[in-house]
Structure formats: C-alpha cells, structure tokens
TrEMBL record:
GO terms for cellular component: cytoplasm. This is GH3 auxin-responsive promoter. InterPro entries: GH3, GH3_C, GH3_M. Residues 388-492 form the GH3 C-terminal domain. GO terms for molecular function: acid-amino acid ligase activity. It holds the Pfam family GH3. PANTHER family: GH3 DOMAIN-CONTAINING PROTEIN. Residues 297-361 form the GH3 middle domain.
Amino acid sequence: MAIIEIHLPKSVAKALRLPANNPERQQIRVLKKLLRKARFTEFGQYYRFDEILLCKNPAKKFKMNVPTFNYSSIYKQWWHKTLDGVPDVCWPGKIKYYALSSGTSEAASKYIPITNDLLAGNKMVMIKQLLTLRNYENIPYSSISKGWLTLGGSTDLQKNLGYYAGDLSGITTKKMPLWFQPFYKPGKKIAKERDWNKKLEEIVEKAPEWDIGFVVGVPAWIQMCMEMVIKKYNLNNIHEMWPNLAFFVHGGVSFEPYKKGFEKLLGKPITYIETYLASEGFIAYQDRQNAKGMRLVTNEHIFLEFVPFNDSNFDSNGDMVENPETFMVHEVEEGKEYALLISTNAGTWRYLIGDTIKFVDKSRCEIIITGRTKHFLSLVGEHLSVDNMNKAIQLTSEQLNICIPEFTVAGIPYNNFFAHHWYIACDEQIDPQLLKQHIDENLKILNDDYAVERKSALKEVFVDVLSEQQFLDFMQLKGKLGGQHKFPRVLKGNMLKDWEEYLHQQPAHSK
C-alpha cells in the first residue's frame, strides 16, 4: 500500500493542513507556543517569558530579553545541568536523549538535547514532506510503497546515567512509529550495528532481498553503498539490483560535487530531494519539482531568526558578536547571506546553529545552504564560501569528466602573502596542474572578491590529488566515519594540523 493512500486520523490530518501562507503570523504563533510551554522552566523564569507573552510584539521583546547563544555559552550556562539529571532547565521535564553532534568542527562531541516534543515536530514535518511527493512528476506512487533504505547512525545508543546519546538519525530510528517499520531498511538488527564498515557489508549482503524505492542519507555514504553493491554482484548499475529506485532524499552537505559520480551508478534518471534536518531540528525541505531551494518549516516547532553574515555581526574567525542584528522571516532579503538562529521545543533558545543560508525565493520561503559560519576562507578579503567551493568543484568535474567525491581546502601563508591549498579526492588519472587551473578559473567567475585578490595578496593555489580512501581513513582515525559525519570543506586550527600530520605518514601524493 502506498504511503499516499494511508488514511490518517482526523486529528493528524487537521494538523497537517498548512495555515494561511503568512510566514510572519506562523512564526509568531510558534514563538508563543514555545514560550508558553517553557515559561515555568529555569530559563523561562530567568528571562521572564510570561512578560514576553503579555507584549503586543512578543518577537521584539523576546530579542530584548533573551541573549543569543552558541553551543559553548548555552552549555556552560544551562545545558550542563540537564546532563546531571536536573529537570525543567530549558524545557519541561528531564532530557532523556542527546544527539552527539561534532559536525565538522574541531570540538569534542556536542550534546544537543532531544525531547519527545522535538521528535514529534520532526515527525510531523517528515509526514508533510512525504505528502509533497505528489508534486513531483517523475516519482511513481509505487516507489513509495517499496523499501526505504536509510543510512544513518547506530540505534545502539550510548547509555549514561539517566540519558542516552547518539546520532539523531539513530535516535529517530529507534523511536520510529510502527507504521514506518515494514518499509524501513536495513531493519532493526543492521541499524543497531555501530561498526560502520560492518554495517555496510551487512547491507550489501541483504541487498538482493530488498526492493528499494528510495534511499535516504548523506551523499558520500549512499554512493559508497551503491558502489559496493554494484561491485559485489558484478552489476552495470544499481538499477539492475533495485529497478524501482526512483528518488534520493539527501542532506547534510551539498549534492553538487557528488552528482556526476553518483549518476554513473544509475541505470536511469532519479529525482533528488534535498532536506535540512539538523541535530537541532527539521528546518527545511524541498517540496516540489525543480524548486530553487528548500522551503523553511515556519509553522511547526522552530522559531527562526536571521543574522546578516557580514563584518558587523561576525569577526574574522566566524564568531558572532554579542548583540547581532537579527531579522524575522518576513524581514529578510533575497540573495543576502544569513546565519541562522533557532529556538525549538528542545530548549534551544536563540541558538547559532552554525549554518549560513541564502533566500532564493522569499515569497515561498525557499533557501539554500551556503556554508558554515566557521567554514569559509577570507585570508585577505576573498570571502570564499562553501557554496562557491561546491560549485567550482561541480563545474570542474563536469569540464574534465571526472568524479570528485571529496575535497577540502586550507588557507596558508606563502612568501609573505597567502595561498589556498586544495586536497582533492579523485581515483582517476588527472593532472593536478590542470585541476588547479580549472578550479581557480571557476572561482574567479563565481566570486568577484576572489578574482580581485588573486591579483593581489592571494598569490598561489596548490592542489594535491589523493584517493577517496585517504579521506575515509582520516575520518575513521578521528572517529567520524559514517552516519551524519561529513568531511570539513575548510581546514583550520588543530584539524588542519592533524590532517597534515596524517598526510606526512602516507605515501607521497601528487602536487
């Protein structure tokens, strides 16, 4: 039976009806709902949520009363108490689950609180996204009733005193509703496996038993899984194993650099659907064919604020200033880059999630993710975003007809000036100098500041070509193999030192 045909209870069906398309009104409603629920918590009492709720303009008063936080500040002041079992700190009740989220930062694992309210909100957004599949011309209903292969973190969560911790994907899968389970692959037993390599091997063994209609996960790991299936069973493409595979729901990183290599594994075209599901909540998803970006979730469980990503609000290290300028969803401008602040029903308040986004269609609240506040290169004013890097790699791979499954870049001193050092994963024969020329020229076209600085203080570009396995081995060395872990697009600080030390221990690589 196709999911679209499932008859939902009236209460759920009513909840799924989208309110009138007024993002400002939706967001005020969400904010009030969050404030009411949390007003008797320590946080709510300290920042006078009752007083905010009585105001004619609660959003303005909320910004006046509550400061902005990053992970370090909110953990130090508030969240650390919840790990000791203290209830009603930032959200009612005890926190029983934490998403471990180191992301691509240098820091040790972050403990992001996960509540039943947050999971319920995420689940409702997932159902809404499923219903939008009717907006896609090339997705047959039959594919939705097939198996769903999801590559995520282990459901065997770390047990601590009073709480469990693991990847959000593992927590979500562990608490999945009964109606989801018949469709879900690889199934409970394999999903529980912590060893990522063993998990992939078990999936490959089971592959012939499944009829997969769509796959969900980070592009690099889905691609690797499909490559292993094709190799194991001596196939020409993945559709020889799963003929009903119709679409790929992806997120976590830009799909653009992976697309060319990914499509070499297919026997026929499939539809790509992007989602923005962070450890802190389900923020946006693509809801129609050929959408410019992902539609923000403005009417469910997350209150959003947007901080212009500029020198007034962020320093040269990507750290946000104490009282940044912020806007609500109806106040933003298309084409400008913003950092995202979120407040959620897990006790996350005015929290800098670390991503930068850009509105590509304000009327539809559609955004694209452009990078990270910490992951950009601006040694001399080149203002190179991760979005620029992704597009340059995509163009280069198309121009040279090669697959580049991973890459990273570092800014380095060079002859009293500066240079960019690229590390490219490519298992095909390619001249590093040719790669350098294409990447450099593409970036000059994509970014005017970069073009100017290449004639000034940004004197050189270096390119090392490595194997994809070297990137994977480094991630394994750092304990970040599989699941939601992504290779950092920009290397800085200790992560760069560790990477350079790792490479020095490897066989000589091309320059």
